[in-house]
């Protein structure tokens, strides 16, 4: 009998013809396999701001390690919320600061935007709110009873005929007027804003522009506006409103120690129908020349206690000490130019003098009021004057001819031509937009 062929040992992996192929389990391999692969670092992934994904902490994995089925192991994996793109930096987290500061709490953001449009209904503010935030559109529910009636002839007619059930809204003209009002009514925080009105040329209408600007501001705003005549050469600002007192800036200086409130101060000013207060200059040229830098600072300090905006009607003496004190307090300036060649040139030279004396920022933020009621306006190209100033300042506004202004007497706001009032309101809106909303 032939010998039976010898069976292979268990270590021999060669299969026999009469048995199925046998593949060992990876668990029966005693040797661990380690593979080293050099991969370039993955680029950092930015998480979209509108998503809040989760990230798994990086855990080293051995590709040759396989857990034994008889000895199961448990690995804890930490799940952490991924950082948004605008979250704190690694340095901040290492220092223990894991809280992202809210807007307005880092000392660099505006505390308030004077509006609740960017916040949800009923959401609390992170900081105490000023009284200006309690507006009618925030507190009142808009319905048939609280919604105001439309302005405009046709809109009002439809509103009345339908027994106040159909409200077409305001006309386009009324909407434009209200939008201009909204720009002028910008709220300020942190003190009084000072706006000098000046130029080196006399007779171009500085006093007229100061009066128009002050009336436009006082007519649209709810806070107090005052115009101070700081012309050392016998200013005429007080003659543009009905005179209610004979007091001047000299009286304010003499009585400064006894002025304890707004009632005391208001007895020294004249007020017109728009609620613009006017503080007159001295009528005696000898006394007015004695009004110097220190006197102006006394008047300005008192005005800053009671008024939100102080307009200063400056004289032509740009090197006078009063001008130095005025410019040191200025938040913005208004340059007045006439429509003639020499008036426009002297207005431009005023800007050059300001730049040469360290007031470059005021020049860049300045507004030029182009008074077209001056002599020889019809003989020059106003577009060329505007083009010149547009290269140097922020904005230019044309003030049209108006018989009431040309008379050089009392100005009644309600009697001005519509175009004149519109130009004055446009000037007021531009001036307000150039003033800082907040001040430290």
From TrEMBL:
Gene3D superfamilies: P-loop containing nucleotide triphosphate hydrolases (3.40.50.300). Residues 1-26, 88-110 are annotated as: Disordered. It comes from the Bacteria. It holds the Pfam family CbiA. InterPro entries: CobQ/CobB/MinD/ParA_Nub-bd_dom, P-loop_NTPase, ParA/MinD_ATPase. Residues 1-21 have a biased composition (Basic and acidic residues). SUPFAM superfamilies: P-loop containing nucleoside triphosphate hydrolases (SSF52540). Keywords: Cell projection, Cilium, Flagellum. GO terms for molecular function: ATP binding; ATP hydrolysis activity. GO terms for biological process: negative regulation of cell division. This is MinD-like ATPase involved in chromosome partitioning or flagellar assembly. It comes from Leifsonia shinshuensis.
């Amino acid at each position: 009998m032939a010998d039976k062929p010898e069976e292979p040992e268990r270590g021999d992996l060669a299969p026999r013809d009469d048995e199925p192929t046998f593949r060992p389990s990876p668990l029966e391999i005693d040797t661990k396999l380690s593979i080293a692969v050099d991969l370039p670092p993955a680029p950092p992934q930015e998480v979209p701001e509108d998503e809040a994904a989760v990230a798994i902490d990086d855990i080293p994995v051995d590709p040759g390690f396989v857990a034994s089925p008889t000895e199961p192991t448990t690995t804890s994996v930490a799940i952490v919320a991924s950082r948004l793109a605008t979250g704190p930096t690694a340095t901040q987290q290492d220092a223990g600061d894991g809280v992202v500061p809210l807007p307005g709490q880092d000392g660099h953001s505006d505390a308030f935007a004077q509006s609740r449009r960017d916040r949800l209904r009923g959401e609390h503010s992170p900081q105490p709110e000023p009284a200006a935030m309690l507006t009618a559109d925030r507190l009142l529910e808009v319905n048939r009873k609280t919604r105001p009636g439309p302005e405009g002839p046709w809109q009002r007619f439809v509103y009345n005929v339908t027994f106040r059930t159909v409200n077409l809204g305001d006309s386009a003209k009324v909407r434009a007027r209200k939008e201009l009002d909204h720009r002028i009514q910008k709220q300020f925080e942190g003190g009084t804003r000072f706006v000098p009105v000046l130029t080196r040329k006399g007779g171009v209408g500085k006093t007229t522009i100061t009066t128009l600007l002050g009336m436009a501001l006082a007519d649209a705003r709810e806070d107090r506006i005052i115009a101070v005549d700081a012309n050392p050469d016998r200013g005429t600002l007080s003659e543009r409103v009905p005179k209610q007192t004979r007091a001047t800036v000299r009286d304010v200086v003499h009585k400064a120690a006894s002025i304890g409130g707004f009632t005391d101060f208001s007895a020294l000013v004249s007020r017109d129908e728009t609620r613009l207060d006017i503080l007159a200059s001295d009528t005696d040229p000898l006394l007015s020349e004695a009004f110097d830098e220190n006197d102006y600072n006394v008047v300005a300090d008192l005005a800053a206690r009671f008024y939100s905006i102080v307009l200063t009607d400056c004289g032509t003496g740009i090197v006078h000490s009063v001008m130095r004190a005025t410019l040191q307090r200025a938040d913005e300036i208004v340059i007045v130019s006439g429509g003639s060649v020499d008036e426009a040139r002297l207005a431009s030279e005023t800007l050059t003098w300001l730049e040469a004396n360290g007031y470059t920022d005021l020049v860049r933020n300045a507004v030029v009021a182009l008074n077209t009621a001056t002599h020889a306006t019809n003989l020059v190209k106003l577009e060329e004057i505007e083009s010149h100033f547009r290269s140097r300042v922020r904005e230019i506004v044309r003030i049209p001819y108006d018989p009431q202004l040309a008379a050089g007497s009392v100005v009644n706001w309600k009697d001005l031509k519509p175009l004149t009032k519109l130009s004055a309101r446009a000037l007021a809106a531009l001036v307000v937009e150039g003033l800082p909303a907040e001040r430290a």
